[in-house]
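Lab meeting tomorrow. Look over both lines:
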Amino acid sequence: MVDEDDVRRIAATLPEVVVDVDGGGQLKVTFRGKLLAWTWLERPDPKGPRVPNPSVLALRVAGQGEKEELLASEPEVFFTEPHYDGYPAVLARLGAIARDELAELITDAWRLRAPKRLQREVGL
């Protein structure tokens, strides 16, 4: 079982990644201002505001194909909601995902944003 502290530790291994918690309690992992992963903002009441759910992490993925593959492969770990329809991100239950798998997904999200030159320099 992993938690937001594991997310912070994994993100800290990647060059130029910033981990921040905004005033509303939402964890955000960014590379040069672009989101890689973030705390899911859940809407418990359909007419109410979205609130951070620290047990779920949204992760940027390469595209719809990868998103669908993850959703089909481990439905107990990955899910989505209408808010993310057409958006290249998947929601992951931190209590169900393995640390190695989470590290791979965060690193893959970093690769989507980091220049190839930087990736070569650091061997990622």
Notes: Residues 43 and 49 are 6 Å apart (CA to CA). The longest helix spans residues 99-113.
